[in-house]
């Protein structure tokens, strides 16, 4: 030891001698090792002689302990990591050695150097390759070991390295932070000897450093046990500084918690878990004995709220950490933080968003949030305050917060509804029983109604989710407006919203089976079977199977006894038997079946049943249940002694059975089918033949029971389809008998048109399935088809001959007799005509079944009928040469066109000859039914003969402006389908003509158009709206005043038909709606390009004279272009990168990094395009402004409004462009300010005039209630401020208006002859002159009076 002491003393003496040259020279590594050996020997062996001799030796050489500390401090501040850590360890060991002068050795500078060396070790590990640092470290240790050969010294060194360093693996891959274990252990021991109350800065540095070690050491540990030990050492030190010996506990606890906040706010990591455990266990234990620590912990969640990140995933982790701390606090402190969170909902956007995430955690984590188990009033319950705050955030100004609040409210409602008592209290709070809340915002129903129609997709999705969760809570059917909105959401462009809307609407259907819910569900959900997304199709099938088929199976399979028991209790004297039957089937099954038979729902139901049947998911119980329902209905009818001839099955039952029987033929019994076939196989109850055109007008009523012959005929159609489906299961003899009966019925030609098709198809199916071979079946079908065609030909020839004779007789009269209206009506309903119409329809059905049939004899007759009007015009001078079929038999005329269309579908050569005739008839026919049928036929021709019809598409599109709504809707639907299947291309005027459907008079057509442009077209042809936008402005205005657009308009009559001409408010709003719909389909880059095209092709053309502004349509085009450039839809919303703006993206599960990168690239590209746009647009605007001002055009106001928007949205770009022309910039700004001032004055003047008119109606005038008047004026002031964008503008404008009104009143008095009093008679205050003294009446300066006389009036001030 003497040698060690001598070396240390000599080195320090050398350093002491060089103090003047290098005062920061560190002590050598060997000296540090020697000092460590002495300190360890003094501590471990409890031998203080060696360390005492060291102090004596240094004192003899006039070296103070402070000098030793300065050398060690220099070593801690410089050198490699192993040296700095060794110096730190030596310093702590010396402080712990017995008899050491602690107060001399401990200095704040040395202590901070100690902490800095620990922190630097982690920083060097991250900056320097780990292998290099590890190799240097291991090389240094090995080198030292080789130098030290002494036994005692070697043993001392081994003790210095500590027990834990024996386990360090020398793999050389990374810096092993386990070397910090002995340093931290010694640091903890030093804090027991040295109190830091006198060194607050050292205490703060210690807390910050130790709190960061677990976070910095995350990358350095592969062994969790070692990391656990390191963290325990750090938390033990932090727990130690909370003692009173180290100063104020409040300051220490606050600093500890602040330093741990970064670790607490980390994502899922071990450091976060350990930090939370330290706070919730160790510090909470200390808080029980210390009010200061408890107070600091109580404020920790509030601090974390301020430091919480804004991105979605880190924010969720922060919420979990905050909640874990709050759960460990006392109840009073928890309530205090909840109240703080409620106040956060009124703060900044990031705080509101965090509060919205915290409130559901409160309500779902703590017991009894609504106070149902306590006696306190509901208004004093913390849960109510949180719930009201959450509901208020559902109407937040930021869309992301609204969406998040709705989603979280849905979770809360679902959680609280599980408890019956909480559900009752929740009903009161959300507006179903709480008058205060309902008056405040309309309740939950009003909230859902507003949010379901929100402009943001994420908000709509969250609102639908809330409906799903709150259905059970409502206790009654959802509001009809909300139901309608949910149905519309099922057609939303986003897949996630369509799925959510399906789920929400289906949840309402599960709970409530009233008619409105059933109708909306069937109108919205089944149609999704045609959705492009396969998952939505599968979900649609599952929901239909659960909510329709399984429900029908469950009710229908319960047997007849239960239903009869229910009906036995009903009053037999009731007249309305249908209501009794409806009450017999619970869960609204009859309503469900009735709505399934709706014409718009039936195609979707057919597709769903076909898909379920192919997947073998249809169960026989559904077919059995439907049969039971039909039997039960018949049984109940007979039990009330009603005539069976008047009975019809529940609507929709036969239809659904006909669809499922195709896949469940064995579940349908022949006896059941045979019985009802005999029952329904009648022409009519009175045996008369019924016209398909008069079925709905000849219903009879017997004993209060209305006979719906259309439903009666429809039942027979579906019964025949069911028989066809199960024909393979029929016995041979009944099948042959049925085929014979079907053939006989067809030959009579006295059925409804739908029955004809059903009979023909059923007969063909029976023949083909019962034939021994396919050839035999085809021959059998051809035989009876030719037989029926010959009989139909005879019926048609007979009628034409009779009509020809009547026409000849009438032609001999002068003038020729045409018959009165009554005679025409009798002729139209004559049995021979009705039979002929049915025969013609049967011909078309037979041709579709058997295209190879012989039609040579039938074609001339059909040609004669469809050309009868043309032939009559050609030979009208020859009596008896033409038969006016269109006049005497319009039903036969229309039916002949339909049959000819079917013949053309079967024969291509025939189609080539007759398609021009179809187009000609479509243009000139005055029958809406015929036009509708021809449109359907032309669509079929387009599929079969695409090349032949393509040249007539422009003529077909004229039906989009047909006066009949049915024709317009049919045309729109058919053309849309052809466009989707690429039979028709979006070229020419087709797209421009489709635009007018967006503003059609029919709401259904508008909805179809919105879906086409918003969903289908946006995905199929995303550039179509951009490419046709400018041309659409000219077409909609019917403008031919532009040289570049005059030739593309086509015929003037067609262009006027497909235009919205006019400058009235309705026309402008309709055109603007079309423009906005197109803009919504464009990408951001296309919006900017559209702005550039408008500037170049419209604004520049107007300023250059290419667009004639003297023409009314030219003015409308320019006005529309300016309004489009000023509308918000064409402006690109700037993303500011906040979490609240990107929450919608987070809700959809977007990748944060990818979104950020894409947004950054998009902003750069957008900025460049915007700059180029403004560089080209500003000169055009300036030139156009001068032109319009020179012409004193009323469009100057539109131009200034558009320019105001550009100055607002592109301020930076405009400043850069006009930087070289400051005078022009000032002129533009002055003109804008003048325009805004004039606009403000006019707006305020109109408002004041309106208010004065309303005040004149008071009795007496002007003496209304002061409070209401003040409130009204305040309301008007607020609305004006919102409209003009500034309350200052409103105040200034109102002052100008008031002054102008005063002047006008004075001038009015002057004009009436009232003399103005002289100035001397007016009492005026005495004024002091600038020179001092008082001015009297006689010594007024003459120049002041002269200036007053020369003041201009207020009216002229506006013009100047």
TrEMBL record:
Compartments in which it is found: Nucleus
Keywords, sorted A to Z: Cell cycle, Cell division, DNA condensation, Mitosis, Nucleus
Domain Condensin complex subunit 1 C-terminal: 930-1082
Chain positions covered by the region annotation Disordered: 129-164, 1312-1342
Comp. bias (Basic residues): 144-156
GO cellular component terms attached to this protein's record: nucleus
GO terms of biological process kind: cell division; mitotic chromosome condensation
Main location: nucleus
Biased composition annotated in UniProt, kind: Polar residues: 1312-1321
Domain of life (superkingdom): Eukaryota
tRNA processing among keywords: no
PANTHER family found in the cross-reference section: CONDENSIN, CONDENSIN-2 COMPLEX SUBUNIT D3
UniProt protein name: Condensin complex subunit 1 C-terminal domain-containing protein
Protein source organism: Nelumbo nucifera (Sacred lotus)
């Amino acid at each position: 030891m003497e040698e060690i002491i001598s070396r240390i003393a000599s080195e320090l003496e050398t350093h002491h001698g060089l103090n003047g040259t290098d005062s920061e020279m560190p002590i050598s590594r060997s000296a540090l090792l020697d000092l460590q050996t002495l300190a360890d020997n003094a501590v471990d062996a409890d031998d203080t002689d060696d360390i005492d001799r060291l102090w004596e030796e240094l004192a003899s050489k006039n070296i103070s302990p402070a000098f030793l500390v300065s050398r060690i401090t220099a070593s801690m501040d410089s050198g490699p990591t192993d040296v700095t850590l060794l110096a730190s360890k030596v310093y702590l060991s010396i402080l712990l050695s017995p008899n050491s002068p602690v107060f001399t050795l401990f200095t704040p500078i040395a202590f901070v150097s100690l902490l800095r060396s620990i922190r630097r070790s982690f920083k060097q590990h991250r900056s320097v390759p780990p292998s290099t640092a590890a190799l240097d470290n291991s090389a240094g240790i090995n080198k030292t070991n080789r130098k030290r050969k002494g036994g005692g010294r070697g043993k001392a060194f081994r003790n210095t390295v500590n027990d834990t360093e024996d386990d360090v693996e020398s793999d050389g891959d990374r810096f092993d932070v386990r070397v910090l274990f002995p340093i931290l252990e010694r640091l903890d021991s030093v804090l027991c000897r040295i109190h830091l109350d006198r060194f607050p800065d050292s205490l703060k540095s210690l807390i910050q450093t130790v709190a960061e070690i677990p976070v910095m050491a995350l990358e350095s540990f592969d062994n969790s046990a070692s990391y656990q030990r390191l963290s325990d050492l750090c938390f033990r030190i932090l727990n130690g500084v909370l003692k009173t010996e180290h100063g104020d506990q409040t300051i220490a606890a606050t600093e500890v918690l602040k330093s741990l906040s970064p670790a607490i706010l980390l994502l899922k990591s071990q450091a976060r878990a350990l930090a939370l455990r330290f706070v919730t266990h160790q510090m909470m234990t200390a808080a029980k004995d210390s009010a200061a620590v408890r107070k600091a912990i109580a404020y920790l969640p509030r601090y974390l709220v301020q430091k919480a990140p804004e991105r979605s995933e880190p924010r969720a982790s922060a919420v979990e950490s905050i909640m874990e701390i709050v759960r460990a606090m006392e109840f009073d402190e928890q309530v205090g933080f909840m109240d703080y969170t409620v106040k956060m909902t009124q703060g900044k956007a990031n705080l509101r968003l965090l509060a919205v995430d915290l409130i559901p955690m409160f309500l779902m984590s703590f017991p009894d949030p609504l106070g149902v188990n306590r006696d306190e009033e509901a208004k004093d319950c913390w849960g109510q305050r949180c719930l009201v705050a959450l509901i208020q955030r559902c109407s937040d100004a930021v869309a992301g917060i609204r969406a998040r609040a709705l989603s979280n409210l849905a979770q809360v409602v679902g959680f609280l509804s599980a408890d019956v008592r909480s559900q009752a209290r929740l009903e009161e709070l959300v507006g179903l029983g709480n008058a205060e809340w309902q008056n405040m915002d309309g309740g939950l129903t009003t909230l859902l109604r507003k949010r379901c129609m929100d402009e943001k997709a994420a908000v709509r999705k969250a609102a639908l989710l809330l409906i799903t969760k709150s259905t059970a809570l409502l206790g009654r059917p959802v509001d009809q407006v909300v139901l309608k909105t949910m149905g519309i959401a099922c057609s939303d462009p986003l897949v996630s919203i369509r799925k959510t809307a399906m789920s929400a609407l289906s949840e309402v259907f599960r709970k409530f089976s009233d008619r409105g819910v059933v109708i909306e569900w069937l109108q919205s959900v089944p149609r999704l079977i045609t959705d492009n997304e396969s998952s939505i199709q599968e979900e649609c099938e599952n929901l239909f199977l659960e909510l329709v088929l399984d429900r029908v199976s469950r009710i229908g399979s319960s047997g007849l006894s239960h239903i009869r028991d229910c009906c036995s209790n009903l009053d037999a004297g009731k007249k309305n038997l249908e209501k009794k039957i409806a009450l017999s089937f619970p869960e609204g099954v009859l309503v469900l079946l009735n709505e399934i038979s709706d014409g718009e729902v039936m195609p979707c139901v057919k597709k769903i049943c076909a898909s379920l049947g192919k997947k073998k998911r249809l169960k026989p119980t559904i077919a059995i249940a439907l049969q039971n329902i039909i039997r039960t209905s018949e049984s109940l009818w007979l039990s009330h002694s009603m005539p069976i001839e008047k009975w019809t099955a529940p609507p929709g039952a036969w239809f659904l059975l006909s669809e499922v029987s195709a896949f469940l033929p064995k579940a349908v019994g022949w006896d059941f089918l045979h019985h009802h076939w005999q029952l329904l196989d009648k022409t009519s109850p009175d045996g008369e033949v019924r016209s398909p055109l008069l079925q709905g007008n000849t219903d009879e009523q017997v004993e209060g029971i209305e006979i719906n012959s259309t439903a009666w005929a429809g039942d027979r159609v579906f019964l025949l389809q069911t028989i066809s489906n199960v024909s393979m299961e029929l016995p041979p003899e009944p099948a042959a008998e049925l085929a014979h009966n079907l053939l006989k019925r067809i030959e009579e030609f006295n059925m409804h048109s739908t029955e004809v098709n059903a009979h023909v198809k059923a007969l063909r199916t029976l023949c083909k399935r019962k034939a021994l071979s396919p050839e035999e079946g085809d021959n059998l079908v051809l035989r009876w088809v030719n037989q029926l065609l010959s009989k139909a030909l005879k019926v048609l020839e007979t009628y034409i001959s009779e009509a020809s004779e009547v026409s000849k007789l009438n032609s001999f009269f002068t003038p020729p007799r045409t018959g009165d209206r009554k005679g025409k009506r009798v002729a139209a309903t004559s049995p021979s005509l009705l039979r002929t119409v049915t025969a013609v329809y049967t011909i078309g059905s037979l041709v579709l079944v058997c295209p190879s049939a012989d039609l040579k004899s039938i074609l001339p007759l059909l040609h004669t009928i469809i050309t009868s009007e043309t032939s009559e015009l050609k030979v009208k001078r020859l009596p008896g040469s033409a038969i006016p079929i269109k006049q005497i038999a319009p039903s036969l005329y229309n039916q002949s066109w339909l049959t000819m269309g079917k013949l053309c579908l079967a024969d291509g050569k025939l189609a080539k000859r007759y398609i021009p005739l179809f187009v000609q008839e479509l243009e000139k026919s005055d029958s809406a039914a015929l036009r509708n049928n021809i449109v359907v036929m032309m669509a079929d021709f387009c599929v079969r003969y695409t090349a032949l019809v393509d040249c007539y598409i422009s003529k077909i599109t004229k039906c989009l402006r047909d006066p009949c709504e049915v024709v317009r809707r049919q045309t729109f639907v058919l053309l849309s389908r052809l466009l989707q299947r690429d039979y028709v291309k979006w070229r020419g005027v087709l797209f421009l003509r489709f635009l007018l459907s967006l503003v059609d008079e029919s709401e259904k057509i508008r909805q179809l158009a919105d879906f086409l442009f918003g969903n289908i077209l946006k995905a199929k042809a995303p550039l179509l709206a951009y490419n046709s936008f400018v041309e659409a402005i000219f077409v909609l205005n019917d403008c031919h005043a532009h040289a570049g657009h005059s030739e593309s308009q086509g015929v003037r009559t067609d262009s006027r038909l497909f235009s919205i001409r006019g400058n009235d408010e309705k026309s402008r709003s309709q055109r603007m709606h079309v423009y906005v719909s197109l803009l919504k389909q464009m990408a951001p880059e296309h919006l900017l390009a559209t702005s550039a095209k408008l500037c170049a092709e419209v604004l520049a053309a107007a300023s250059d004279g290419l667009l004639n502004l003297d023409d009314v349509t030219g003015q409308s085009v320019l006005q529309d272009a300016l309004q489009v450039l000023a509308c918000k839809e064409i402006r690109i919303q700037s993303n500011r990168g906040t979490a609240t703006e990107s929450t919608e993206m987070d809700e959809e599960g977007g990748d944060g990094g990818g979104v950020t990168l894409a947004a950054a690239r998009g902003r750069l590209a957008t900025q460049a395009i915007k700059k180029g746009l403004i560089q080209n647009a500003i000169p055009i605007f300036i030139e156009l402004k001068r032109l319009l001002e020179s012409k004193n055009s009323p469009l100057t106001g539109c131009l200034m409004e558009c320019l105001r928007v550009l100055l607002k949205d592109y301020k930076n770009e405009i400043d850069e462009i006009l930087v070289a022309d400051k005078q022009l910039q000032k002129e533009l700004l002055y003109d804008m300010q003048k325009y805004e001032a004039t606009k403000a004055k006019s707006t305020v003047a109109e408002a004041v005039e309106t208010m004065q008119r309303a005040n004149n109606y008071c009795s007496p005038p002007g003496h209304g209630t002061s409070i209401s008047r003040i409130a009204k004026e305040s309301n008007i002031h607020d609305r004006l401020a919102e409209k003009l964008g500034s309350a200052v503008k409103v105040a200034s404008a109102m002052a100008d208006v008031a002054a102008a009104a005063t002047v006008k009143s004075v001038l009015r008095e002057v004009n009436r002859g009232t003399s103005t009093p002289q100035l001397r008679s007016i009492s005026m205050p005495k004024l002091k002159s600038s020179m001092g003294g008082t001015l009297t009446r006689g010594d007024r300066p003459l120049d002041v009076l002269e200036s007053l006389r020369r003041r201009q009036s207020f009216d002229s001030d506006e013009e100047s």
